[in-house]
C-alpha cells in the first residue's frame, strides 16, 4: 500500500502539467492569452522563439478558435506594429520600420493605415538618403558608360520615390543603352554576353520597349548557331559542333535540341575512342574517351568504350608477351598476304574475321610498329577510297557503301569522307528513283533508308520520300 501511494504521488508530480492540459484545456488557453497580453505591454510583438505577443495569441487561437480574445489580441498586435513602425520612421530606424510594417500587413491591418506609414517611410528615407546626390551619381555613371553602376542607383531612387520622373527617364535610357550593347554582342557572336545583358535588363524592367527585339535577335542567333552545330556534327567536325551547341545553350539554357546535340557528340567521341583502341592508338583513344566522359559520364556507350579500350590493351599485351619477335613477324606477313587476297575479292569489311579490315587489324595487333604493316594500312585506305569511286561511278551502290564503310573505319579523320557521304546519299536517291519507276518499291524503300542515314538533308530526299510513300500506299 505504501509503495502504491508513493508511485501515485510520483506520477502526479511528474505528469502534473500534461494531466492539467488534458483535464483543464481552458487553463492553457488562458495562460497563452495572459502571456500574449504581457508581451504586448512590453512591446515584444513578435519573437522567433515563440514568446512574442503574436505567437502567444496564435497559440491560444489554435487551441480554441471560438474565443474572441485571441482574435482581438492579434488585431491589437497589428495596430501596435503600425504604431511601432511609425515611431521607427521618426527615429530614422528604417530597417526596423520595414519589419514592423511587414508584421502589420501579415496580421491584416487596414490597408490605408499600412500605406500611410509606408509613404512616410519612403519620404523619410528619400530625404535622409539625399536623392539629388544619388541622381547626380547615376547621371555621371551613365554618361561615362558605367551602366552597371548607374542602374542600381536609379533603382534605389525609384524604391524611395516610385514616381521620380528623372529617375524613370534615366533608367529607361540606361536600359536602352544596355540592350544596344546586348545586340552588339549578339551580332559579334558572343551570345553568352548578349544573353547576360538581356537578363540584366529584364531584372530592372521586364516591360522595356526594346526588350522584345533584343530577345528575338538572341533567339534567332541561337537557332542559327544550333543549326550550324547540327551540320558540323553530321560532318563529324566534333569540336566545332560542341562549340556551337554550347553557344546555343549559353543563349538559351532550356534548348533541349542543343543539349541532345551535345549528348550525340559524346556518343561520337566514345565510338571514335573504340575505333582508335582497335587500332592500338591508345593515346588518341584515351583522349577521345575523356572527352566523351566529360560530356556524358553516365552514358552506356561511354562505358562500352572504356571496356573496348581495356580489352585492346590486354590484347596487345597478351600478343606481345607470348610470341617471340620472329614469330610475330612471320604471322604478320601471313596476315598481310591475306589482306591482299581479301582486297582482291572485294571483301573489305565482310565476312567477319576474313575481311581485309579484320586481317589488317590482326597484323597491327601483332606488329603495330612494323613498317610493312604501316604500308599495308596506307594501301588499304587508298584502295577502299578508289573502290568507292569506282563502284559509285558504276551505280553499284551496295558495293560503294561497303567500300565507304571500310574507308571510314580505317581513316575516321579523312577530310574526304563528308563529301563522299553526300555523294553516296545522292546516288542512292538517283538509283532508288530509277528502280521505283520500274515498279521495284522494295528497293526504293531501302534506298530511301540508306540515303537518309547517310545525309538527312540530301537534295531531293524529301521529294523522293514522298514518292516512295505514295507508291507504298498504292501498293
* Structural class by SSE content: mainly alpha
- From the spread of the alpha carbons, the general shape counts as elongated
Given as residue ranges, the uncertain stretches (5+ residues, pLDDT < 50) are: none
The helix fraction, in percent, is over 70%
- Characterize the largest beta sheet: strand count, sense, and whether it forms a barrel: none
Strand proportion = under 5%
| Total count of helical runs of at least 4 residues | 23
Structure write-up:
- The protein has 475 residues and is mostly helical.
- The protein is 81% helix and 0% strand.
- Helix 17 runs parallel beside helix 19 (371-393).
- It is elongated and about 105 Å long.
- The model has no long low-confidence stretch (mean pLDDT 80).
Quick gist of this model?
The chain is an all-alpha fold.
Relevant terms:
475 residues; single chain; mainly alpha; 23 helices
What layout of secondary structure does this protein have?
Layout: H1 2-14, H2 16-23, H3 25-42, H4 53-63, H5 68-90, H6 94-106, H7 111-129, H8 131-143, H9 147-160, H10 165-187, H11 191-204, H12 211-234, H13 238-251, H14 256-278, H15 282-295, H16 300-322, H17 325-344, H18 356-366, H19 371-393, H20 397-410, H21 417-437, H22 441-454, H23 461-474
Helix pairs in contact: 2-3, 3-4, 3-5, 4-5, 5-6, 5-7, 6-7, 8-9, 8-10, 9-10, 10-11, 10-12, 11-12, 11-13, 12-13, 12-14, 13-14, 14-15, 14-16, 15-16, 17-18, 17-19, 18-19, 19-20, 20-21, 21-22, 21-23, 22-23
Amino acid at each position: 500500500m505504501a509503495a502504491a501511494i508513493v508511485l501515485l504521488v510520483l506520477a502526479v508530480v511528474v505528469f502534473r502539467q500534461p494531466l492539467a492540459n488534458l483535464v483543464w484545456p481552458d487553463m492553457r488557453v488562458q495562460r497563452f492569452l495572459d502571456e500574449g497580453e504581457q508581451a504586448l505591454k512590453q512591446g515584444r510583438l513578435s519573437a522567433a522563439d515563440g514568446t512574442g505577443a503574436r505567437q502567444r495569441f496564435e497559440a491560444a487561437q489554435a487551441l480554441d478558435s471560438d474565443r474572441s480574445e485571441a482574435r482581438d489580441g492579434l488585431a491589437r498586435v497589428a495596430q501596435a506594429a503600425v504604431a511601432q513602425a511609425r515611431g521607427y520612421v521618426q527615429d530614422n530606424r528604417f530597417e526596423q520600420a520595414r519589419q514592423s510594417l511587414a508584421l502589420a500587413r501579415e496580421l491584416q491591418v487596414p490597408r490605408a493605415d499600412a500605406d500611410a506609414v509606408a509613404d512616410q517611410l519612403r519620404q523619410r528615407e528619400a530625404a535622409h538618403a539625399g536623392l539629388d546626390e544619388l541622381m547626380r551619381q547615376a547621371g555621371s555613371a551613365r554618361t561615362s558608360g558605367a551602366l552597371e553602376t548607374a542602374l542600381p542607383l536609379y533603382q534605389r531612387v525609384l524604391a524611395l520615390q516610385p514616381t521620380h520622373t528623372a529617375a524613370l527617364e534615366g533608367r529607361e535610357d540606361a536600359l536602352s543603352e544596355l540592350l544596344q550593347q546586348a545586340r552588339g554582342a549578339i551580332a559579334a557572336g558572343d551570345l553568352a554576353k548578349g544573353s547576360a545583358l538581356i537578363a540584366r535588363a529584364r531584372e530592372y524592367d521586364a516591360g522595356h520597349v526594346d526588350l522584345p527585339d533584343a530577345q528575338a535577335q538572341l533567339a534567332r542567333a541561337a537557332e542559327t548557331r544550333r543549326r550550324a552545330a547540327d551540320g558540323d556534327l553530321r560532318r563529324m567536325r566534333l569540336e566545332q559542333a560542341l562549340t556551337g551547341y554550347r553557344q546555343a545553350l549559353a543563349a538559351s539554357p532550356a534548348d533541349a535540341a542543343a543539349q541532345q546535340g551535345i549528348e550525340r557528340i559524346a556518343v561520337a567521341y566514345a565510338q571514335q575512342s573504340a575505333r582508335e583502341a582497335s587500332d592500338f592508338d591508345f593515346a588518341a583513344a584515351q583522349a577521345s574517351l575523356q572527352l566523351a566522359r566529360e560530356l556524358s559520364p553516365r552514358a552506356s556507350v561511354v562505358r562500352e568504350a572504356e571496356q573496348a579500350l581495356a580489352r585492346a590493351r590486354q590484347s596487345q599485351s597478351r600478343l606481345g608477351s607470348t610470341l617471340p619477335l620472329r614469330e610475330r613477324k612471320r604471322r604478320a606477313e601471313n596476315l598481310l598476304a591475306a589482306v591482299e587476297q581479301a582486297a582482291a575479292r572485294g571483301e573489305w569489311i565482310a565476312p567477319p574475321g576474313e575481311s581485309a579490315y579484320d586481317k589488317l587489324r590482326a597484323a597491327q595487333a601483332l606488329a603495330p610498329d612494323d613498317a610493312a604493316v604501316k604500308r599495308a594500312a596506307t594501301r588499304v585506305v587508298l584502295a577502299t577510297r578508289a573502290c568507292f569511286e569506282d563502284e559509285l561511278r558504276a551505280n553499284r551502290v551496295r558495293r560503294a557503301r561497303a567500300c565507304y564503310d571500310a574507308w571510314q573505319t580505317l581513316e575516321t579523320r579523312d577530310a574526304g569522307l563528308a563529301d563522299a557521304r553526300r555523294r553516296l546519299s545522292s546516288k542512292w536517291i538517283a538509283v532508288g528513283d530509277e528502280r521505283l519507276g520500274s515498279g521495284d518499291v522494295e528497293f526504293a524503300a531501302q534506298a530511301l533508308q540508306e540515303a537518309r542515314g547517310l545525309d538527312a538533308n540530301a537534295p531531293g530526299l524529301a521529294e523522293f520520300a514522298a514518292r516512295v510513300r505514295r507508291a507504298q500506299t498504292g501498293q
